[in-house]
Amino acid sequence: RSSYSCCYFVLPCCFFDFHGKYSRRQSKKTQYREYLDFVAQVGLVCGFHVEEDCLRIPSTKRVSFVGKSRSYAAAERALIDQQITRFINSRRACAVATCDTGAGFHQEDHCGALCKEAGSEPPEDETETAGTMWMPGFQPREKVEQIRNCVSLPRDFVDEVVLNVANLLLNAAPQKSCSDKQGGNINTWNRGESLSLREVAEHLNKETLKKLKSEYGGLQTLLKNNHQVFEVLNGRVHIRDWRKEKPPSKTKPEVKRRLSAEAFKTRLCWFFIHHPDGCSLPSEACPYAHGTEELR
């Protein structure tokens, strides 16, 4: 309904109708095939020559539909618009009938009859909405989609949460005795303890939690975004130990190995700045800069 010159391509995936989940009506077909037929029917009702194609993609749902041309003249657009309105209203009636468990009639027969009415004259109460561009109550998605994966949060706020959580994990670790620290074979770099996401959340203030809840994934997403400092596994938060990270593969081509060795350090090392024991790696082995003089 956007315009007569509009074309479309659609790759059906999730089973949805205009007003909610798509309800099956033919047990002789698979759910996927039945839904594909429904999507094709929408294109036909809208006055398109509908073409079906199978994409070469690694997916079980790869059947697509293309509408490149109309099956009616531009002068008939008002009639097709009425046909579209009746079809939409018939689908709404089908959705209501599906929810009405006490209707007392066969759902398949009823919905089939309603859909056939899409080609008949519209009832009096529907003629008024025939010129409406979209269905009543339709709310399109905003043109600019709001980013809510914690990347748009203020940098100062993120840094404060990261520092608070890191200190929480570091202080939860039992302190090593002086004799342990003086022993040559004892590793004194504090790796901290692991805590569950719930335990970490309990130590954050209400304002911080409120701000994180407005983001998708909340606290977990923020910590995963800061993978230089944290590792989140099976719902538990750990301080990342870069000594345990897998070294670059020795089977890489010579050119890639040389580029990897000459990689520029564009971010400061969080551990070098904030960790009480500094970074667990020497400067030449750390992928992050130990001081601003290493930034390039």
TrEMBL record:
E.C. no: 2.1.1.211
Parts forming coiled coils: none
Main location: cytoplasm
tRNA processing in keyword set: yes
Compartments it resides in: Cytoplasm
Highest taxon listed in the record's lineage: Eukaryota
Matching PROSITE patterns: ZF_C3H1
Domain C3H1-type: 263-293
Enzyme class, UniProt record, top EC level: transferase
GO molecular function per UniProt: tRNA(Ser) (uridine(44)-2'-O-)-methyltransferase activity; zinc ion binding
GO cellular component, one term: cytoplasm
Family statement drawn from the similarity comment of this UniProt entry: Belongs to the TRM44 family.
Stated role: Adenosyl-L-methionine (AdoMet)-dependent tRNA (uracil-O(2)-)-methyltransferase.
Protein known as: tRNA (uracil-O(2)-)-methyltransferase
Annotated organism of origin: Aegithalos caudatus
Chain's gene name: Trmt44
